[in-house]
Specification:
The complex is a heterodimer of chains A (513) and B (104). Chain A is mainly alpha-helical. Helices cover 60% and strands 4% of the residues of chain A. In chain A, strand 2 and strand 3 form a beta hairpin. Chain A is globular and about 95 Å long. Chain B is built from 1 helix and 5 strands. In chain B, strand 3 and strand 4 (68-70) form a beta hairpin. Chain B is globular, with a radius of gyration of 13 Å. Chain B starts with 8 loop residues before the first strand and ends in a 12-residue tail after the last strand. Classes of the chains: A mainly alpha (513), B alpha+beta (104). Chain A binds chain B through residues 336, 339-340, 343-344, 373-378, 380-381, 392, 394-399, 407-409, 416-419, 421, 423, 429-432, 456-457, 460, 464-468, and chain B through 1-3, 7, 10, 12, 14, 16-17, 19-28, 45-46, 49, 51, 66-67, 84-88, 90, 98-104.
Chain lengths: 513, 104
Amino acid sequence: MDKRVERKSHSLGERYAAMTHDLQWETTYQSMDRVFPFDRYEGIKVRDWSKWEDPFRLTTDAYWKFQGEKEKKLYAVIEAFAQNSCQFGVSDARYVNAIKLILQAIAPIKYSLHRSLAHTGRHLRGDALRVAVQMQASDNLRHFQNETHAASVFNKYFNGLHSAPALFDAAWYLAPFKSFADDVASAGPFERIVAISFSFESLLTDTLFVPYMSGAAHNGDLSIVAAGFSGQSDAARHKMLGIETVKFLLTQDPANLALVQRWIDKWFWRSFRLMPIVAMMQDYMLSKRMMSWKESWQRFVEAPVEALFAELAQFGLRLPTGWAQACDSKEHLSHQAWNVFYGYGDAIAVHTWIPETDELNWLDQKYPDSFDRWYRPRLAHYAQRQAQGHRFFNRSLPMQCQVCQQPMFFTEKGNPRLIAYRQTEHEGETFHFCSDHCDTIFSNEPAKYQQARLSSHTLLHATDGGAKADLLKASLAASHLSNGRDQGDFSGSEDDTNFSDWGGGQDMKEAQL
Amino acid sequence: MSVTATTNALLYVGWDEHMMFATPIVLPMSLDTRFEELIHTALPSLYGEHPDFKLIDWSKAQWFQGDRLFTPRMQATLAEQGFGHKAVLRFRTPGLEGLRGSCG
């Protein structure tokens, strides 16, 4: 009689079932509602959790193996970059300011989103989604660490990278990111998935990889390229998780549609309001450019998002309410954002500058309908003042939107002449917004935003409504910035003179010859 | 701008079609400030750097409280004209459209 052969390996499907569904049990010492106290209060109804499955069938054992491999490759590149002093091989020291923004704005929200996702992953009673969300939580922590490590070599040679956490808590230009992360943290588990995995990751992250990763490649920064590559495959999984979860919720119960649509309206807009720095990184901060923000928006957002929503229409979903306005702003966003950063450039931990003539011409070519008409004259005026020794800085504090916390610099849809103002009365107080969409977000949940900390107000309070010098001092102190080193114009900054003294940028110049 | 002990409100001020200043400005104020004082002391320190500023003919300026067009009384205070904490005051200067007509 033949001896029965043991099967050595399981199929992917069996392994996936064993590592998700088979780990689930109905609790008896405590009710399931007590074990998972947060996954019903939002009003989402789930009838059959077994219907959610990860399309990648990624199990925990495989996850750690893949991630471990990626880490090894990434850290080999980061090490080599530092060993070979490649920080001096980047195109230009101006470029490093884009890296500063990544580390100041993007890395900290990854950390915060990791915490929100870890909590979400604990609190869903559906096994397969729970596992997938836990992986996304680990991914976000990994990305935060990778970005920090990839940027750490720059911290030794350039200013403004030394105190990212304090900066994230206090700086006005990072407040939209902090506020976004806090809003996610205080949402329920389903809203968080719709916010992070669907609205942010599925709809908008591809645009981030353009200046972050391709931009780094064009500018000789292999360290950031490697970190971006390592993260991008995770982002693909997060997008899928977002899309699958939205479809799952919409097929579980008809009552879920209204909630999911409202969350998508809200979180698309909140995510879009994080884009100004991405837009200006791409159009103004990369020394070597590859495509404009407008082109990136058309290619990586407009086309794919419209295709995605055409597919989701069968579930009753429509494009987010802010969609048309977001698309309309692609002509203006980067120019308006850079104007804010340039004007308030004495109170931020990056340097700003007026683009060189060939860069201005590039912008003109990429934005034939808007740049020359609305934005070039302003830059020319600043340049002229600067040549006369009067670098322009705003002398006062900006009004901010109560919800997204951006300075109120956005213009009306279809009318770049006028800044958009919206306001609402609530419990005897007036609240101001940059747009109808932020106004609606407030009106749906006023208690969540009415006590929002607006940095302009906080600074005026801290200095007793003080003079500009006091405001600036207080602003820099709160963010751990050192006056005259971390901020101000790039030209003549320590970054500028050091890079030049150390022979930076020569490799790229020689390569071009 | 310096603030006296009577400061009791924040006022948001915006000069339409002049985005060199990027955003409307937060101004700590006393609501007992007379309108004329606001124009002749506060506004020059905020906006005086713009080349259009010295060209403004104040008799032709249009004033908005939020979205609503209104005619200010120069000797009356902000409070007397309905401005409270966190009110928006916007002005438009017809004929002046920013740096080379760019609203900059």
